[in-house]
Amino acid sequence: MGMKVVVKVRFNTSREKFEKFSNNMYLCYLSYPQDEDTPNVLASFISKNMGVPVGRVEYAGQDMNKNFVFEVM
Burial, 46: exposed, middle or buried (Cβ in 10 Å; 0-12, 13-18, 19+)? Predict the structure, then answer.
């Protein structure tokens, strides 16, 4: 079992950025609306920021607050 990572996303922003704001929690600003490719984009950001291969980041769904939840193996 891997580590759980939660990403809160703000869509349609003027500038894109990805930042850590708590232990295993990230805030992501994306310049486009949510679509079916959003989990893949977020997995790529997590991979780059945590230094793990993107293949080890799996989308686990959304929590009650509509945050994206990932499992990092």
Answer: buried
DSSP state of 33: -
Give dist(CA 73, CA 68) in Å, integer. Answer: 16
Q: What are phi and psi of 20, to 5 degrees?
A: -85, 135
Predicted confidence (pLDDT) per residue in 20-49, tens digit: 988 899 999 999 999 999 999 999 999 998
pLDDT digits over 7-17, tens only?
999 999 999 99
DSSP 8-class letter at 40: H
The whole-angstrom separation of Cα 67 and Cα 43 is 13
Residue 43 to residue 7: CA distance in whole angstroms:
10
Q: Tell me the residue length of the chain.
A: 73
